[in-house]
Amino acid sequence: MPIISLRTALNQAIAEEMERDENVFLLGEEVAEYNGAYKVSEGLLDKFGPKRVIDTPISEGAFTGLAVGAATYGLRPIVEYMTWSFSLVAFDQIINNAGQVRYMAGGQFEVPLVLRGNSGGGLRVGATHSHTPENWYANIPALTVITPAFPDDAKGLLKSAIRSNNPIIFIENEILYNYKDEVPEGEHLTPIGKARIRREGKDITFIANSASTHRALEAAETLAKSGIDAEVVDLRTIKPLDFDLIAESVRRTNHVVIVEENKPFAGWGAQVAYMIQRHLFDELDAPVIRVASLDAPQPYNAKLEDYLLPSADRVVKAAKEVLA
Amino acid sequence: MPIISLRTALNQAIAEEMERDENVFLLGEEVAEYNGAYKVSEGLLDKFGPKRVIDTPISEGAFTGLAVGAATYGLRPIVEYMTWSFSLVAFDQIINNAGQVRYMAGGQFEVPLVLRGNSGGGLRVGATHSHTPENWYANIPALTVITPAFPDDAKGLLKSAIRSNNPIIFIENEILYNYKDEVPEGEHLTPIGKARIRREGKDITFIANSASTHRALEAAETLAKSGIDAEVVDLRTIKPLDFDLIAESVRRTNHVVIVEENKPFAGWGAQVAYMIQRHLFDELDAPVIRVASLDAPQPYNAKLEDYLLPSADRVVKAAKEVLA
Amino acid sequence: MHTVDTPGRITASPTSAPDAPLLPVLKPDEKHAMLRKMVLIRRFEEKSEQAYQKQQIRGFCHVYTGQEAIAVGTESVINRDDAVITAYRDHGHALARGMCPKACMAELLGKATGCSKGKGGSMHFFDKKKHFYGGHGIVGGQTPLGLGIAFAQKYTNSNRLTLCYLGDGAINQGVFHESLNIAALWKIPVIYIIENNLYAMGTSVARSSAGDPLVKRADGYDMAGIVANGMDIDDVRIKTAEAVNLARTESLPSLMEIRAYRYRGHSMTDPRKYRTREEEEQQRARDPIEIYKQRLLDENVINEKDYEDMEAGVASEVQEAYDFAVNSPDPEIEEVFDDIFAPETQIDEIERRPKWSYGD
Amino acid sequence: MHTVDTPGRITASPTSAPDAPLLPVLKPDEKHAMLRKMVLIRRFEEKSEQAYQKQQIRGFCHVYTGQEAIAVGTESVINRDDAVITAYRDHGHALARGMCPKACMAELLGKATGCSKGKGGSMHFFDKKKHFYGGHGIVGGQTPLGLGIAFAQKYTNSNRLTLCYLGDGAINQGVFHESLNIAALWKIPVIYIIENNLYAMGTSVARSSAGDPLVKRADGYDMAGIVANGMDIDDVRIKTAEAVNLARTESLPSLMEIRAYRYRGHSMTDPRKYRTREEEEQQRARDPIEIYKQRLLDENVINEKDYEDMEAGVASEVQEAYDFAVNSPDPEIEEVFDDIFAPETQIDEIERRPKWSYGD
Ligand SMILES: Cc1ncc(C[n+]2csc(CCOP(=O)(O)OP(=O)(O)O)c2C)c(N)n1
Ligand SMILES: Cc1ncc(C[n+]2csc(CCOP(=O)(O)OP(=O)(O)O)c2C)c(N)n1
Ligand SMILES: [Mg+2]
Ligand SMILES: [Mg+2]
Q1: What's the CA gap between A1 and A161, in Å, rounded?
Q2: A140 touches chain B (CB under 8 A)
Q3: According to DSSP H, which parts of chain C are helical?
Q4: What is the ipTM of this complex?
Q5: pTM
Q6: Span A171-221, pLDDT tens digits
Q7: Chain C residues near residue B86 by CB distance under 8 angstroms
Q8: How many angstroms away from the CA of B322 is the closest CA of chain D?
């Protein structure tokens, strides 16, 4: 299998789906002539032309609403937010229009829409640019939230998202764009709403997503040295949550640490922890512990930001506490 | 003690604080000449004049930002959102400006700001108008989130909020505006960040806020008939969470049901449930169960909306399951 | 082609002489039909108010009384397959679009037979078959949606256009300005129609918006700004035809300001203390239905008898709609979980696993 | 008082003849100081770029090179106690405000001695004492803040005003339009200054904004629109003085468009493929520092020797700032939890209970 970067995987997914269906188009800031602020859309303007690869003004609210309107008409827009932090100015359009229109219309309209971009910390861009909004959007009943951690899932899930007839929140992470791994050639679709065990283990289950999956894997390797065998579940899709797989794993390990980059209060990990104790109460030998970002705004200073972000060290520490 | 409505309690709180400090002013849609869409600001224009009670255009983003800017300059604005659902168009201003400016400036500026209005369901106003945003805002480190359930707390907490030197998210509930109860006369301040036991009980702890506190109390009365003695903790402040009181209660009852109106995925109740199993694992005799809104958009039809909202019946059912 | 000279003064733009070629002369039955539509809206809204008093309609209900000539007049110069989208004061636009009064009244009563299955209510009428895209409750929130529908119309080379209505208060939502800029920049065939009924709830235009006329805001985007008199359906038609011509022939957007008056309160609970009864009387004196009725009488298009028959026909149509709504069933409780997700057709259904509930 | 006739053509407005009474004639040392400030900004940014290449500066870093005359010129016609707020390209405004280069460079390096204690970084400079309100990273996000600061200045009868800068791309954020409307409606003494450097990242003005000149958007709000040549600091001063006069004497807002050129890439990682080197050369040919330097030489305000001394002085000042920054300590890890909440003074401290952690 060819080894490509997560960035290239996303680029291939968009290109292949645009090839397949001319109702699919991409719009966002700098996606066309600049080839994308983070180069995810590299080459797409040349391939598909300005009708389908569209540079927008800096008007997230309007071009998000534009995409929702176009989707109700039957097109299949892909919106790129330069980063998800900038989706905050489009929050009403995402929640009240993308998220409610079909229901309010009694199901008359479909909203085949993908909203995508990168998110997360570690880039030293400070408090306004480092949000991880998956918990906010997953709180909206009609929204599906996907956060891939590996190139193959990024490609397969983005292709599935573009083919879905429903609004999809697709949250990437810039620090993973250069991550390289094998990606199957040709038609490769990954099912939405299914988690994946990225490392099998018998002692404890780590539940993570996106960049935190890699933190969990790193922690698992460290623990392996001290004879602790951790299983790493990469959620891939935050909502709908694949609790079938979570349950199956927790029933085997009876110990859980959740790794998430959300700020802790009501992050997605709180929901997962709630469900584990709610549905698997007797399976737990110890409390579920969440390793999340610290409850402070994102500082610019690198040492402070690294201290704030969830780290493999903190996961190791939490695992030892859970297993103590 | 005089018995007044929660609406009047809020009105008194604003009036008293505006009396006390001329840097306090109120702005929002229809707050002045119309006396408030929900009459919370009744009479304030006559009392304080148009300089301090200000009708705004329908520009939530701009007048929220205006208030943040004025607060950094030293004024103490109170912003009224006609309902909190309309704060979604101001989301970026609330999160990135009210929520981050002090930190990004290394603490140079204070943001003494109260953002308030009603929220919640039961009004038959449909999917776009029935949001309960406390979980989203509580996810922001620098924001304090208050959701009163009774007139005395509404007055005492709003007065404290106006006097706070920090940005406060003050979320009321329209179905409680006419709720009447005793409110102490004269200077009455309620501490922010302290929950309150509204009903003492020994068998199970109900943790709720706002309108859900009343649902919990109703359920407690029903259960009393079948000999079950439920304690009802009204959080009053969602963040910072008064876990001291929660812990004290759970240690006595060892059983918990959380009642919240948030849509379930990553609602505030998930955070409370997480913390209970995290910090009080051995105190729990059964899983914590959350009674929340159903995971669907708000329907207009009354029967459907009542079915979607958390109800005393569902709390009773959950309590029996927890105690079974 | 800004058609206002002295700010505030409404003037005919060069191309809008009564004999404007843009506008084919109406046949008598078409004129009759327009008058009937206005009357239908007026009576429908009276019935809505009664139903609200009986608490059969809940939540918010915003009636269109007084603005009938705007919806009917603008609608009369576009095609059935063009698209329409508006805000929460949507009953008039829905009926003007030709939506079934029964389905509309049933929606107001929250019934399963409603145009949104009882899930949308007064603010959220929808009818895909009629290309009616709602009915939107968040002020200004529909303006980028209208842009997107028109974008799709252009993308698919349909030569269709979209009418997107908004209120005078709504022009102060930022997303509307973002939409104006994109519409002008990309030449999107959307016509934004500000229904200036002089008030946003209790706030007069002068207290909410700097700049007069409101269409001046189009200048900054080099976009056409057109002002029309919403009390005269023929003026509405003439001015709208200009905008339609721009959209149809050059795929250009326009901003229209059509001035009328909201006869009733903002919603059912508004005592209208912010304005005088005298003002209301003066405004009602130039009633759009009366003006057009008189014109048709003068032109001998109709006689008094015709009008009485029309009124009678409308009355029974509205009564039927009401009876239909009252006798229709509520949706089944379980339907609360329907209509959230569209069925998948290009991928396998996404598993939602209800057995692992997110909350109880 | 729209000062543009043919769209796009920059013309002097009636009141802005060089002898405009609004503008006191500058003393030689004041002219010298303005030139020095521009040179200081230019050299400071060169040092910033070097530090970025060494990865001492992380994240985003947007330099002001080429736009110096805007910050220095506008700053020169307001008072120290007036307020300034801008976007993320804020180094120039901070230095023009008189903020300490040491504290600024230290902030770029994320040091505890930085003007935001290392928590803000390049995009988020702040200095309360200097009435510098940031440094804001969300495009357009600062525009309502500037409105609010000016609102407070008026509320407290301070007769102060606020300069709020934004980019040409930022004018398409809706909240900016909401702010223009409120500023005009309530007569708020805020001066919005669009720094039109022809690009928003890789997007030229023509590709992002309908309507030319950009200040035409002020017309819709009956607000003054003023265009200035940002390559000529004296033109900047004359035009800004008009806006300042409106704010000071009538508490009126203005919208200014000052045209300049962003010499460097948008940020440190921009290869500038979207424009030609020829274009860049042409623009650099009308360099604001060169123009003003030559003018002062011609006026015999300075001679070449003075200029060399000035350059030398600036060079060492910038080097000192850099050394100071490099030798300053990082904030302590624990400080991550400082500066979130202001101490309470009117109520008891709010208990935050760290022992019950929200997450580990
Ligand atoms: C973003 C937002 N803010 C506030 C409201 C509450 N609201 C509903 S209608 C309305 C007044 C709108 O007036 P206008 O735009 O003139 O329309 P009209 O009611 O006159 O048809 C307001 C403030 C809302 N629905 N959405
Ligand atoms: C709401 C939002 N969207 C997108 C961005 C990313 N972004 C940062 S700067 C910029 C370009 C702004 O250009 P302009 O306003 O002309 O200012 P300039 O960089 O030229 O000074 C963009 C798109 C952002 N910071 N905020
Ligand atoms: Mg109106
Ligand atoms: Mg620019």
Answers
A1: 23
A2: yes
A3: 28-53, 68-75, 91-96, 101-108, 143-155, 174-186, 205-208, 233-250, 277-285, 288-298, 304-327
A4: 0.97
A5: 0.97
A6: 999 999 999 999 998 899 999 999 999 999 999 999 999 999 999 999 999
A7: 138-139
A8: 24
